Fold this protein.
Amino acid sequence: MKVKRGARQEFTTVSIPTPLFHKVEAHIADTGFPSVSSYVAFILRMLLTEMKENGDSKIDYEAKLIKKKLEDLGYS
């Protein structure tokens, strides 16, 4: 869906565990991201773009990328 400049963009709610929210919140401190939601949207866009560019939509690829992102946030 294309959004015209100046048009109001629609949003929805995605729930994540509270401890993960707090880890992301700490991770983005002093980064310029105004909220956890904006950071998560940025990461998801980046992930989807990377998958599309690589032409890879395999579950293994997604799992590896998600695992890497979670490790970067302090999960092992």
Residues 17 and 63 are 19 Å apart (CA to CA).
